[in-house]
Amino acid sequence: MRALLLAAGCGTRLRPLTNVMPKCLVPVKGKPLLEIWLDRLTRAGAGPFLVNTHYLAEQVERFVDASPFREQVTLVHEPELLGTAGTLVANLHFFQGREGMLIHADNYSLADLSAFMEAHRQRPEECVMTMMTFRTDRPSTCGIVELDGRGVVAGFYEKDPDFHGNLANGAVYILSSDFLEMIGRDLGSAKDFSTEVLGGLMGRIYTYETREVFLDVGTPEMYNRANTEA
């Protein structure tokens, strides 16, 4: 299964650490985030991979060139950030008409990716994607999902200060070939995946909840937590 890893962000909330390295390369327990993703995906049988770059792109290029994944990774540079949906739309050809994964590679996750893929295979027929979810103790900083009895998304609340539970969108998705065709046809101008795409798919997104470590390491507090507690 091919995977597009979104890795181009500037990581402004992690400064000063990200003054000298891109967020996707910050180390967690001695390994860059991007290496952790590529290793775990490869072990689950996924690949090849497309990784977008923007901020300090030359560091990502050097990392990939020196890594054991270099034959499996293609880099695509964005002089101006296209947005999470915009990058997907611009690179639909990468999936070759088949289903694939879309991953925000600046999260730290130890989820069972093989189980995630199996959940996607068992999804209800009307669901065009499967979203990884996790439990958060900071719901106001996440996209919170509300599910029906089958584990299908019935409501979505993006960083809402009101409480809607603590089941959060992990921004890791398996996208069906039907969905990829649809987004290219009907949502070609979308920039943000969460706000411009997900809201129109209520009742068509299946979920898989990981009980393993899943942390947004976008702040110094959460980054330290990943390195000391997880």
TrEMBL record:
<feature type="domain" description="Nucleotidyl transferase">
    <location>
        <begin position="3"/>
        <end position="228"/>
    </location>
</feature>
<dbReference type="InterPro" id="IPR029044">
    <property type="entry name" value="Nucleotide-diphossugar_trans"/>
</dbReference>
<dbReference type="InterPro" id="IPR050486">
    <property type="entry name" value="Mannose-1P_guanyltransferase"/>
</dbReference>
<protein>
    <submittedName>
        <fullName>Nucleotidyl transferase</fullName>
    </submittedName>
</protein>
<dbReference type="Pfam" id="PF00483">
    <property type="entry name" value="NTP_transferase"/>
</dbReference>
<dbReference type="GO" id="GO:0016740">
    <property type="term" value="F:transferase activity"/>
</dbReference>
<keyword id="KW-0808">Transferase</keyword>
<dbReference type="InterPro" id="IPR005835">
    <property type="entry name" value="NTP_transferase_dom"/>
</dbReference>
